[in-house]
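stuck on whats below:

***
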Amino acid sequence: MRKILFSSFCTIFINQILAQGFSIGFAGGYGAGVLTQTSGKSGENTTINYATLSSAKPYKVSLGKGADFQIEFSNSFKNGFEFGLATSYHTGIPFSYSLSTDNTTHSSGNSSTYNSKESFSYKKIHQLQFMPFVKTSLGVITKPYLKFGFVLGCLGEIELDYKRTEIYSSTNNQPPPNNVSSYNTFSSESTTKYKGGTSAGFIGALGVERKLIGSSFFTAECSFVAMQWAPNKEKQSNSQSYDSIDEANKSNWSYSSFRIQAGLRYIFGKKNVSKQE
């Protein structure tokens, strides 16, 4: 008896959803990263008799640049409103950059110079994202629409190659043989993998659908995603396992991006089909 009641409930529930207009869509696209996260500064600092002149400039990065592959489920209601859930897999494009700092000090004829260069190389960037949304559209054959929702990211991973080089040099203004000069170089390299942690943000999109055959539609969409990610585990190249990252040492990376994507959507349900045809 319980099986019969459960089966009847499921049948009624599914029929109600299909009657409203259940849809499934597949899309792919590209995201241009929005540079909102400051990673460091590059520039020069010159000190003359304890007065410092600085020309350092910040450098910004974003992990949101790359390809996105999405599957979307939604259910239509009256007056063109829809509620749905999209699942997107983001794979970022590897990128590299360098930061350099030159510090020069002059005082009483003596001078010292400190030069540092840091190289960052990001690769193996990916994250799974879930996007519950609400959508409103107009029209029948050609349907422009607006979409707003939340973005929840998980299972994110990234690998970072880091290299730092430091050069110290100094000279004094003493007469020979006391005019001593020194020169030292120090360098280090490391590879760190980061993963874990969840991220949350928002999405807003403008798009259009064009009816093809039957209940199938071609979709094109431009969206903006605002989100940051803070991994909670890391693994150095000489380690066999991941270690937890303390709250005080966690870093936030921007996943914000402008995305353009296109795909296909199919609408189930007799009510929607009859209205569109």
Notes: The chain has one domain: 22-276. The first helix runs from residue 2 to 20.
